[in-house]
Amino acid sequence: MTEAWRPDDDRPRRPSGPVRVRVPAKINLHLGVGPLRADGYHELTTVYHAIGLYDELTARPGDTLTLTMAGEGAGELVLDDSNLIIRAARALARRTGLPALARLHLRKHIPLAGGLAGGSADAAAALVACDALWGAGLSREELAEVAVELGSDVPFLVYGGTALGTGRGEIVSPVLVRPANWHWVVAAADGGLSTPEVYRELDRLRGAGAAPPPLGSTDPLLAALRQRDPGVLAQALGNDLQAAALSLRPDLADTLAAGVAAGALTGLVSGSGPSCVFLTRTSDAATRIAAALKESGTCRSAEAVQGPMAGARVA
């Protein structure tokens, strides 16, 4: 990639070659769902964690703004102006005053509607890729400001790592702990789950008195991260949306049971589901458990990954 530079008139010029950005999926180590707000969103307290499961977005100079894709969800994902990638490019163009001109190509690996924020990840990738392609020179903080209007998870995926999310999830603060590698298995289910539908089901279960008590403070989770012991972290993980996801997809209980039976320290539904994630002690254990999950027939695929990972970055 040719780096953007500023000529004498101080206007950014475009690099001559393509810009490739890798962006990770996210899981929620803690996802506490509060009451419904006046704006239609629930109040959230979450601890985000970026994992080594990636989409890649390539941006090239173009005379219009176009999007093509290959990989997971090809032929299913709508690529018109409603797509978050296109919306992100246009939002960045409005912020910078630059024309929204680019040929964008997505190579997708993160499952669609899987509770791993794949769409939000791709929006974050578009912000970083177009910023570099157009030579806009926005900081991470400025890109995160643009990201807020695109979705609750998008600002985190600009940053990556492990972070506390509040509000509807868009207010992101880094979690300051000593670096540690955590080993996970991600099990993808057949089909997806609608995030709004899962939230509605949680509201229904709570109204009927059929939901578990809401998660409390994030303090135990943050303390577990500081201890850097997978066994301690396993006891602190939690997701208020899990009961609703299991209500809508009871088969996910079989996936969770299969992962634990194969040796995972614990398993939980990722975000709004239906993907499930499992914490393991070592990389070798993660590889072994992923293979056992594939053989169990309880999921479409399973992959060993690590975290935390950086957010959307030029490759």
- Principal-axis shape equals globular
Beta-strand content estimate: 25-35%
State the name of the first-level CATH class of the largest domain: Alpha Beta
Looking at the overall shape, the CATH architecture of the largest domain is 2-Layer Sandwich
Our count of helices gives: 10
Largest sheet: 8 strands, mixed
Question: If you average the pLDDT, what whole number results?
Answer: 93
Instruction: Determine Rg (CA atoms, Å).
Output: 20 Å
Low-confidence stretches: 1-13
Distance between the termini: 9 Å
How many runs of DSSP E, i.e. beta strands?
Answer: 12
Task: Quickly count the domains.
Answer: 2
Q: Write the CATH fold name of the largest domain.
A: Ribosomal Protein S5, domain 2
Oligomer: single chain
Topology as H/E string?
EEEHEHHHEEEHHHEHHEEHEE
Helix content: 25-40%
Keywords: ATP-binding, Isoprene biosynthesis, Kinase, Nucleotide-binding, Transferase
Pathway: Isoprenoid biosynthesis; isopentenyl diphosphate biosynthesis via DXP pathway; isopentenyl diphosphate from 1-deoxy-D-xylulose 5-phosphate: step 3/6
Family: Belongs to the GHMP kinase family. IspE subfamily.
GO molecular function, one term: kinase activity
